[in-house]
Amino acid sequence: MSNIYVTAAFKTDIKNQAYIFMKREYVKDDYSPGRPHEKVLYGPANVNEFPSLKNTIFEDAGIDCAFGSHNPGEAYIFERNNVAKWIYPSDSRRDRIIQGPVPISTMFPFLHGTVFESGVDAAFESTRKYEAYLFKGDKYIGINYGPHNPGRLNYGSIKDYWPIFKGTIFEHGGFSAALASHLEREAYIFKGDSYVRIKFTPGRINYEVIGRVKKLTDGWDGLGSILPRREVILSAYNG
Asked: Rounded to a whole number, what is the distance in angstroms from the first to the last CA of the chain?
């Protein structure tokens, strides 16, 4: 039996709302960026409530990474070395998988030969169209996943490309999840029961931490009140 915190997240097309995943469970959350009014709008519920995820690897093992696409209503969801492009529901259940699940290196051939073809710990979309940041262990890669110029933008260690994490629990990687904010050039990074809010500038290494590293119960009251989840609770869904 193990504790499960945030494993994946992405913002939706509805202002200040996000889907947040804890492996096989999820919540719909109003995270009120920059304001202390975060609350869980729906959940925790099992991911098999999404019809398109039933009888897939995501129903069996959950979602362990995600980032929102710049195409409205789309997101990329990961489970170990697999990924799918997903149309997610806003106010309806009209979700569907439009590509995958397939191996990561099939969806993103430019990740072949990197540590990221076997899985991604955390990711979030940039403010530049079709660009995203991916993290695994102590490694980082920036990608363009668009239809015209897909490929790597930069690749190396987190400490070299993200010096803002020096001296924090995030310095050596191992991020649990990340969430791009609806606020311009801001994001949240999660690790276990902690998180930090950052500001970033695409193409430049002049990011900044906003405030300090905090516990989820300090700023994410709704989410913090239901975490951690436990594997034994998740297993109950399978009878």
From this structure: 16
The one-character DSSP state at 223 is H
Domain residue limits, the chain: 3-238
Alpha carbon of 152 to those of 64, 140, 144, 230, 234: distances in Å?
22, 11, 6, 36, 36
Other beta carbons less than 10 A from residue 40's beta carbon: 18
What is 3-238's CATH superfamily?
Answer: Hemopexin-like domain (2.110.10.10)
Would you write out the chain's pLDDT as a tens digit for each of its 239 residues?
689 999 999 999 999 999 999 999 999 999 988 677 899 999 999 999 999 999 999 999 999 999 999 999 999 999 999 999 999 987 656 899 999 999 999 999 999 999 999 999 999 999 999 999 999 999 999 999 999 889 999 999 998 888 888 888 888 777 999 999 999 999 999 999 999 999 998 876 656 778 789 999 998 999 999 999 987 444 444 43
Phi, psi of 210 (to 5 degrees): -95, 110
